[in-house]
């Protein structure tokens, strides 16, 4: 098992893709800290995934520096070190450029981009200290999106944030490569989660997506979790700075 005994933080792990990643990690015998703003879903995830091994929920808003500090401190308190971070927490907001408010723009950027920066930096500092002390390197996986490179008119703040995550991934990878710490991103297409609820409820929107997806179906959260396991593990030991798109062939091939 490539993640056996590794200590992993998964942000936004109480639901959707993050939950699937936390579940795969726990099944692979990693110790998992789920960070999420949703206390109810977080407590449920801790309970339900606890049957696979060591899973803890910590309430944290990744856009708030103090919460991120507390998250890292709680993880170090429990396990003494961190091997893996998955910066998965994210929110979407649908609005065209001319209608986006400053508040909506700030809110989406604060969670999706600044949250990945704050959490990535706080965890990377722990990882670098461990390498300097002669310990092993770690791996960071950010959650981007096909929207990083595919502009969708009514998803402006979201697309901008995910483009930022793609570039953040490269910059973090460069900075952390001298320590052997790898940083990559996953760029999902349309995956069946609550974030896609409006699409699922609208047959025309669903049909539009499917018609642009060569594999002809919406993706499953487990299909993203499988990539997270690979990127987090030593199996991906020569991969850093990359964004791996899992989109059923939607981006131009
Ligand atoms: P989701 O809404 O189902 O789950 C997101 C989770 O993040 C929830 O548990 C939520 O409570 C948590 N969260 C929200 N704000 C947070 C914050 N400030 N701090 C901590 N936790 C927070 O969404 P999802 O579809 O599972 O999306 C997960 C990630 O994948 C996001 O970054 C999203 O942008 C990305 N993504 C999703 C899709 C898709 O089609 N579902 C496609 C591309 C990228």
From TrEMBL:
Residues 6-189 form the Ketoreductase domain. It comes from the Bacteria. Keywords: Oxidoreductase. The keyword Oxidoreductase applies. Pfam families: adh_short_C2. GO terms for molecular function: oxidoreductase activity, acting on the CH-OH group of donors, NAD or NADP as acceptor; quinone binding. Coiled coil: none annotated. The keyword Transcription regulation does not apply. GO terms for biological process: fatty acid biosynthetic process. Belongs to the short-chain dehydrogenases/reductases (SDR) family. This is SDR family oxidoreductase. The lineage of its organism: Bacteria, Pseudomonadati, Pseudomonadota, Alphaproteobacteria, Hyphomicrobiales.
């Amino acid at each position: 098992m490539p993640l056996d005994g590794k200590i992993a933080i998964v942000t936004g792990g109480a639901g959707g893709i993050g939950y699937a990643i936390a579940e795969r990690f726990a099944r692979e015998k990693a110790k998992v800290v789920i960070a999420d703003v949703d206390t109810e879903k977080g407590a449920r995830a801790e309970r339900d995934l606890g049957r696979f091994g060591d899973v803890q929920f910590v309430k944290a808003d990744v856009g708030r520096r103090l919460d991120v500090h507390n998250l890292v401190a709680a993880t170090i308190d429990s396990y003494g070190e961190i091997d893996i971070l998955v910066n998965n927490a994210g929110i979407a907001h649908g609005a065209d450029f001319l209608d986006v408010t400053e508040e909506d723009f700030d809110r989406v950027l604060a969670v999706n981009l600044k949250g990945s920066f704050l959490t990535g930096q706080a965890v990377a500092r722990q990882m670098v200290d461990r390498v300097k002390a002669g310990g092993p390197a770690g791996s960071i996986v950010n959650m981007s999106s096909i929207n990083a490179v595919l502009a969708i008119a009514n998803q402006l703040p979201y697309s901008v944030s995910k483009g930022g995550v793609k570039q953040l991934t490269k910059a973090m990878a460069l900075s952390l490569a001298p320590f052997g710490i790898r940083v990559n991103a996953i760029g999902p297409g349309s995956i069946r989660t609550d974030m896609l609820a409006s699409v699922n409820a609208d047959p025309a929107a669903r049909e539009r997506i499917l018609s642009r997806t060569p594999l002809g179906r919406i993706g499953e959260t487990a299909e993203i979790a499988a990539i997270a396991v690979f990127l987090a593990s030593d199996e991906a030991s020569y991969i850093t700075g990359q964004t791996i798109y899992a989109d059923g062939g939607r981006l131009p091939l």
